[in-house]
Amino acid sequence: MVKCSLLSATILLASGCSSLGVQPWERDLLAKDEMALTSSPIDAALDDHIYFSKEASSGGKGFGGGGCGCN
Amino acid sequence: MQLNKKKTPINMKAALTIATSALLGTVPTAVNAADEVSNSAKAQQESTWDFDTAFLYYSESDRVSAAEAIIAATKTFENDEVLNLKLTIDALTGASANGATAQPNVQTFTRPSGKGSYQTQANETPLDDTFKDTRVQLNAQWTQPLAENYTGSAGVHISKEYDYLSLGVNGNLAYDFNQKNSTVSLGLSYFQDTFEPEGGIPVAFASMPTAFGDDDVESSNAKADFNTTRRIDSDDKTTADIMIGFTQVINRRMLTQFNYSYSKVDGYLNDPFKILSVVDNKGIAQDYRYENRPDSRVKQSLFAQTKYHFDENIIDVSYRYMWDDWKIDSHTIDSRLRIPLSSNSYIEPHLRFYQQTAADFYQPFLAQENSIPEFASADYRIGEMSAYTVGVKYGMKMSDGNDLSFRLEYYRQDPKDSGHIAPGALAEVDLYESVDAVLFQVSYSF
To answer: Could you tell me if B305 lies within 8 Å of chain A, comparing CB atoms?
Structure first.
């Protein structure tokens, strides 16, 4: 049952999204470095380290695993 | 697609390329400027490394300060294989809240090692000023196309500090469809951490022993007393993460991402340096006890991010909802707006809001009249809290094509009372002291 609904949700999502998107020649803006989902990986790594050690939450965007004894 | 022109390499880049290649046992094929200029774009791509470096200074008023340096090297090979190597070095120093409450009188605490003690003045939040560590971290990540529309990635992580070792592996598989406008991904990661704190692992809820000195006549007795409060020298924890992601291009200007993460942490989850004050009905501390947390934690989170390209500006907004079986849940909103100032410089304001509820075993102190609970921690980081970050980044492209940026941010944490009645003297002191921090970062990519 769960599998079935998951499967249909995925199909629905995939088919719903097929009307979204752009043609390959329309990627001029999306191809910019600053449009990447993580446009500054170094900033993101430093921020993750700070917030991991100061707050009870971590991860979400990437893995929030171990790595330091700061928490 | 790489749109920016490859720039003329400077000597540092050549030197680092040789060093990186030597480390990997490969020979750099073309590292001098003449070769680069004459070769085709593809040959350039095969022969060069791109370096991203950063230095960060983080400082809390009266508490911890940290200096962190990162150097990351990325090389794209033929067939779009990408190798990323990253070295992180950081040094921490300063004072950290030990969990005990402020008191109307001076308090004396034994250092975690047992060798010596430190004092906290009346009405001040007790801070352990022996906090000091240096950490070295290495990451390596390999990403490559596996088949049409499939991309695989695998990585290793090692991090070592004086009293802590962390080893990790990760793997990720992504599938593009709908003309690469949609991507689904599955990621797994596993960490194995070992904690070997100075002075050993305290027995849960053991009373803080008195300090022993090296030359003291009574030191052997005091040391024996200290040892009865220690369980073992080191302990471990493991972290297993699963992440499912979905990325969708909405239109020419907009893309979105959704992630679901499941994380299971098992093992030693206490902070061996954190204690709780045991107070009488007048709010006066009678004893200090080491904390005790459950030995497992399951965290889940939902994350959504969207980026939108206006005519000039780019906005980046994300939201994360996290919940766990310690009854902590949290909301995080993060937003950045990139505003070009000219064709080669930009300014980027940053705003972040964070809010969390307390773990069900969080309590700011233990009442003497109550029996000791199964679990308790006074670590404000698992208490109720809100926080915000305000920052700005300025970036520019240099005449040689390299990128230089500066980032300045202010971070404030406001711990809150989640309904604990403070008896007597505790009503007069600040049990939920705010923390202010400033961070400054310089980044250079070449």
So the answer is: yes
